[in-house]
Amino acid sequence: MSRRYPCEIVTFVVSPAHAYFGRPKDGPADEVETHSPRTVEVVADKGIRGDRFFGVRAHTEAAVSFLALEAWTAAAGDADPVLARRNILVRGLELDPLRGREFSLDTGSGPVRFRGGRPAHPCAWMDTVAGEGVRKALIGRGGLRAQPLTSGTLSVGPATLLADVELDPARAAYPVRRPQPL
């Protein structure tokens, strides 16, 4: 039985290259293009067209990353959530119960199906780019990696998520119940 959950896509983050590599004390890479388009094209088993993880075999099961705005705000305050570099920033959606589950997200152009994967753990860069202590505060609530199972278009704005698991939007900022992959 599928359950419907209204939510909102706040923004997308699409970048053709990694910005955070090497030592955080050296700072992020210079001039890494990062886009926040109004729409993205999701391609089954490949990811978001134009993103650094698109079509990378090692990331097929984790090609798209989600982050709840509530979790980011609880961890990083008013720091720009684009700094987390998660592909899809959502509001009003608990992500942890989606691990190991299929779900679909629809913003009006038809549903795009995903399979929830492992947690998206924060890296040491979070303290450098978003503020001291943000990495530790994000542990257990850094988001969800997912595999796109179908292709389609998603847009910023109101969305509906369909899943066969109970979600509680009031828990969107809570740390995960099981920090290890399923």
Briefly, what is this?
This protein has 182 residues and is mostly beta strands. It contains three helices and ten strands. The chain is 10% helix and 30% strand.
Structure, explained:
By secondary structure, the chain is mainly β. It contains three helices and ten strands; from the N terminus they run ββββαβββααβββ. Strands 1-5-4-8-7-6-10 form a seven-stranded mixed β-barrel. The chain has a three-stranded antiparallel β-sheet with strand order 3-2-9, with no helix packed on it. β4 (64-68), α1 and β5 (88-91) form a beta-alpha-beta unit. The protein is globular and about 40 Å long. Residues 32-163 form the MOSC domain.
